[in-house]
Amino acid sequence: MSIPDGIINLLKPPGISSFKAVHSVKKIINIRKAGHTGTLDPTAAGVLPICTGKATRVIPYLDDDIKEYLAELTLGITTDTLDREGNIIKNNDDWRALDRDEILDVIYDFQGIIEQIPPMFSAVHHKGQRLYKLAREGKKVEREARRIEIFSLNVIDVDLPVIRFRVMCSRGTYIRSLVRDIGEKLDTGAYLSFLLRTRSGPFSISKSWTFTEIEDLTASSNYDFISSPDKN
Q1: DSSP H helical ranges for the chain
Q2: 121-134: pLDDT as tens digits
Q3: Which of 126, 173, 178, 211 would suit a FRET pair with 114, their CA atoms being 20 to 30 Å apart?
């Protein structure tokens, strides 16, 4: 049975970049051409659609306007990358004086159409260079705010200094930036301590595949993990 062209709804584990995730899939199923949609940070896990073979042509046309995440923020600490992998640049214990209602009022105020500044550690271009490359050189540049939309934002648990929430948002939204802005509005600072993408367009985590599952099915020449573009 030949390997079909199509889309793999990969459940990317934390600790690897989206580029390396694609490379791993190519190696497992022994194909030369593949590409992903909707970059996922190395520290994050979750849905990463990967197009294989001729299906890479549909990448620009895939509907990934809506993303959904389970996230966790930690108040009182600010890092240079806005997540747990960065260097701590500020500590603030003022979160101890916050009450639950105050926190919820601030967080829910971020729903709707808002302006958001992308993080320095991101793949956004600035004068032909990726921001993360400039950041690694110790450079910081002004970034233009982008209009994004938070369709829904639901707090799951408040166990200070940790807050867990689910967010549904538009393409181009940085959850790290959302967490930064929440921390700034609470006057405590915050960083993203956990992120799981549960949906990217029509692709959901309930129908995703791990590397191990893909490897096992490939060994038995079963390519059920590859779906046709017109079925998603």
Answers
A1: 18-29, 100-108, 131-136, 175-185, 211-219
A2: 655 554 556 655 55
A3: 126
